[in-house]
Amino acid sequence: MKYKEEGLKEGREEGLKEGREEGLKEGREEGREEGREEGREEGLKEGIEKSKIEIAKNLLKLGIEIESIKKSTGLSDQEINSLR
Known about the structure:
Number of helices: 3
Number of domains: 1
Distance between the termini: 87 Å
Strand content: under 5%
Number of strands: 0
Shape: rod-shaped
Radius of gyration: 29 Å
Helix content: over 70%
């Protein structure tokens, strides 16, 4: 009887250990995927912002009024003026 109880105890402990390891592995994988997704979103935002700035620079070179540039790009007066 004693051996059976010890075997059950060892089995439970081993099962818990395996469960914890599997949970950690899944958690790490989910964390990596979330990090990649956040990185993609951040990169997209940065790309859009750089594109707005390039458009504003080109419009300034063409002599377009600041009000029109603001409407076209969504940039503020200050952001546009800093490009001059």
